[in-house]
């Protein structure tokens, strides 16, 4: 993501950069080459879209389904991008459009091929996830799932025949059907509020909204163990790590915890500090203190 920001800022300061280099007697012919510059401006625009995708895939609590949906949406956007450059309108490439207006020509065929190749790479890389969309959507919409399309082989203790029976059994239970309907309504409301707050740039308020994965977990925890295979399947899907965000968060936390002032760290104390740093659990200190036996004087 930082590379994309560097590209954007370099493009904004390009004329100043060329002036600075000229004053220093340094020459970079590519900065005056229209063929190189049009590819540069294309990268500025395309990298900004990739950064947006990357940002949407980050964050704690994102489910594998959410990430797959973001990838599929980006693949559809690339179809729009390819058509845009092929027609030469460049509605979605503002930097490249400005360059075209100043130079009256760009190689649209080259950019169309580049986007098409990128789209093919996305389709190939995420083909396995695309096949499992029915399974990944199970925790959110189990009653709409086709049991024959669910891949439960990776989830310990899930019996496919028993799962089919449980799905058939729960389908007409009004109490549990309404439970999943309420979950859908709650998730929709969270997404709606996030969109409103993002539009108003109220980022701190967004952090106060309920986490979708917590709403999903709460719903499944309320389902009785009569439907144990459904619960195991749902929890199995929710346990899938969709990105390396949590690992990166742990490494960042370790760098903060370790310092030259802490010279007597053991593996045990470091592990405890990392747990305290990354956990979302909030201890009730008052309750813990009340349950502790006080030391009486002799």
Automatic annotation (TrEMBL):
Top-level taxon in the UniProt lineage: Eukaryota
Database matches in InterPro entries: RNaseH-like_sf
Designated name of the protein: General transcription factor II-I repeat domain-containing protein 2A
């Amino acid at each position: 993501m930082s590379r994309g920001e560097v590209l954007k800022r370099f493009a904004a300061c390009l004329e100043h950069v060329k002036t600075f280099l000229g004053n220093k007697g340094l020459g970079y012919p590519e900065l005056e080459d229209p063929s190189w510059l049009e590819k540069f401006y294309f990268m500025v625009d395309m990298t900004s879209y990739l950064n947006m995708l990357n940002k949407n895939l980050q964050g704690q609590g994102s489910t594998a389904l959410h990430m797959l949906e973001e990838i599929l949406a980006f693949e559809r956007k690339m179809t729009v991008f390819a058509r845009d450059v092929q027609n030469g309108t460049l509605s979605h490439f503002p930097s490249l459009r400005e360059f075209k207006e100043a130079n009256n020509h760009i190689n649209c065929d080259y950019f169309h091929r580049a986007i098409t190749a990128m789209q093919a790479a996305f389709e190939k890389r995420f083909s396995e996830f695309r096949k499992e969309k029915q399974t990944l959507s199970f925790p959110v919409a189990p009653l709409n799932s086709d049991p024959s399309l669910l891949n439960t082989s990776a989830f310990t203790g899930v019996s496919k025949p028993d799962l089919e029976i449980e799905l058939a059994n729960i389908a007409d239970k009004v109490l549990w059907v309404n439970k999943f309907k309420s979950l859908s309504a709650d998730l929709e409301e969270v997404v709606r509020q996030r969109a409103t707050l993002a539009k108003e740039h109220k980022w701190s308020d967004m952090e106060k909204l309920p986490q979708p994965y917590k709403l999903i977990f709460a719903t499944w925890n309320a389902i009785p163990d009569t439907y144990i295979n459904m619960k195991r399947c749902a929890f199995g899907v929710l346990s899938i790590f969709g990105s390396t965000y949590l690992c990166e968060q742990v490494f960042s936390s370790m760098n903060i915890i370790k310092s030259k002032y802490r010279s007597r760290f053991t593996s045990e104390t470091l592990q405890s500090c990392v747990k305290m740093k990354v956990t979302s659990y909030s201890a009730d200190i008052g309750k813990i203190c009340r349950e502790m036996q006080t030391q009486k004087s002799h």
